[in-house]
């Protein structure tokens, strides 16, 4: 049993190139059967691959004495096999209240944060986790039921790079089942811990594990776990090709810019000329790039953006993580945060001169300078004004009906509405643009022009640098 099982693991490691000679590996050690098995197997491979191994156990601050016993068990197990051991303690319930995540989500976040911190401090290059084939099958069902699309079917991979730290994560047990792992440990006479929370049905994943998977295996097909794992592999092959093609097409159709409101422009031609699979994957990649995470991005969000391409100009949709998408005359624009409706309007706030003024996500810093005749800055977000004008309690706010700009030294006016139209500022961006105003007169359309009446001139004695 031992030799056959070990051989299967080694073949899986070789096939997926999970280990290289000289790797420095951190093992996530919960004390459960799967992580105990992983520790034993990697310890047995230390000499073959010239590995350096450490183990980390994360205590979540849940389950009281039971969790304390888990930590003690992990420490003693690691010491028995000569593996350096680290324990991280986190109060997951308290952290979940702060982050507004569920305890399950917060626990996962804290585990990865602890692993990545240790890896950076100890100069480790790979993180080994003990996910197995049952975990993979459960994840396929979990993601499918959440509406994740084909990409979600391929979410657990033998090897991947973590988004946050670029850490290499490996899963050497992904080709084996929970039963095979437990049988191996029983044959070897090795004990492991049972997490009592795994027995509850409080989490969707546990409901899938306790009820749906047994039904599929017992009533539908005994090979359900293996078949779902094979489906995940097939989805991964398809998605690898589609993702590569979509990334190539995005270079043609997508443009990013540095406007703090607008981030990404997608040409209408992308939606008219490309295959639906390429369009969906391209949109997914753009959303992931801007959000910085794949969590909570589902098939429905991608569909919302795709359908937006056929709607009238000015239409918009809200996405997770503060992202918004809007229809423009020549395609779509995706942006983070402000810029698409009444909820983005800035509350009127008096500008502190000198000092710092915070309005929404914006921060303004005002300084008073002597006018020495120096050349004024050309920066888009730093402007100089005549202090005599700007000392009269200017405010920062969103646009209002009746706003105007002074556009010439003679005092000629232009309505703010006409100015924004002439500058081709999309309607859904206009409420999110800060205005520095004196009454209805706009001194600065932030990111654009300033009014002529507040400009620095030869008679100016003091300057407001804003």
What would you say about this model in short?
The protein is of the alpha+beta class and 466 residues long. Helices cover 42% and strands 19% of the residues.
Which features characterize this protein?
17 helices; alpha+beta; six-stranded mixed β-sheet; 466 residues; five-stranded antiparallel β-sheet; elongated
Shape: elongated
Number of helices: 17
CA gyration radius, whole angstroms: 29 Å
Query: Mean pLDDT, rounded to whole units?
Result: 87
Distance between the termini: 74 Å
Q: Which strand order do you get reading across the main beta sheet?
A: 3-2-1-4-6-5
Helicity, as a percent range: 40-55%
Give the low-pLDDT segments: 338-343
Number of strands: 21
Quote the beta fraction.
Answer: 15-25%
Structural class: alpha+beta
């Amino acid at each position: 049993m031992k030799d056959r099982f070990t051989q299967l693991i080694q073949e899986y490691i070789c096939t997926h190139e999970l280990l290289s000679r000289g790797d420095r590996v951190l093992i996530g050690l919960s004390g459960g059967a799967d992580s105990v098995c992983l520790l034993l197997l990697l310890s047995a491979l230390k000499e073959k691959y010239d590995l350096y191994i450490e183990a980390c156990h994360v205590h979540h601050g849940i389950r009281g004495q039971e969790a304390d016993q888990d930590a003690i068990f992990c420490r003693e197990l690691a010491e028995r096999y000569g593996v350096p051991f680290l324990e991280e303690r986190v109060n997951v319930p308290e952290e979940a209240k702060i982050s507004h995540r569920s305890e399950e989500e917060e626990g996962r976040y804290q585990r990865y944060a602890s692993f990545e911190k240790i890896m950076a401090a100890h100069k480790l290059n790979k993180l080994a986790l003990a996910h197995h084939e049952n975990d993979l099958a459960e994840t396929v069902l979990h993601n499918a039921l959440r509406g994740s699309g084909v990409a979600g079917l391929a979410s657990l991979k033998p090897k991947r790079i973590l988004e946050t730290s670029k850490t290499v994560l490996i899963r050497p047990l992904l080709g084996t089942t929970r039963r095979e792992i437990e049988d191996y440990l029983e044959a070897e006479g090795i004990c492991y811990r049972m997490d009592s929370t795994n027995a509850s049905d409080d989490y969707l994943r546990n409901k899938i594990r306790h009820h749906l998977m047994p039904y599929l295996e017992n009533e539908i097909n005994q090979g359900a776990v293996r078949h779902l794992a094979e489906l995940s592999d097939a989805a991964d092959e398809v998605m690898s090709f589609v993702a590569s093609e979509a990334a190539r097409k995005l270079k043609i159709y997508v443009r990013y810019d540095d406007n703090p409101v607008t981030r990404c422009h997608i040409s209408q031609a992308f939606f008219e000329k490309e295959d639906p699979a390429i369009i969906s994957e391209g949109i997914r990649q753009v959303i992931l790039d801007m959000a910085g995470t794949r969590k909570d991005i589902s098939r429905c969000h991608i569909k919302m953006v795709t359908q937006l391409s056929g709607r009238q100009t000015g239409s918009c949709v809200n996405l997770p993580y503060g992202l918004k998408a809007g229809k423009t005359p020549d395609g779509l624009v995706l942006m983070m945060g402000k810029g698409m409706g009444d909820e983005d309007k800035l509350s009127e706030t008096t500008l502190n001169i000198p000092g710092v003024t915070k309005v929404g996500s914006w921060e303004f810093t005002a300084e008073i300078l002597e006018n020495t005749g120096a050349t004024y800055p050309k920066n888009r977000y730093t402007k100089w004004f005549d202090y005599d004008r700007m000392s009269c309690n200017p405010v920062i706010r969103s646009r209002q009906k009746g706003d105007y700009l002074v556009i010439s030294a003679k005092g000629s006016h232009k309505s703010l509405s006409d100015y924004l139209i002439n500058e081709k500022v999309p309607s859904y961006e206009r409420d999110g643009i800060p205005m520095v105003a004196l009454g209805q007169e706009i001194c600065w359309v932030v990111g654009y022009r300033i009014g002529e009446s507040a400009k620095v001139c030869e008679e100016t004695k003091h300057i407001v640098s804003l």
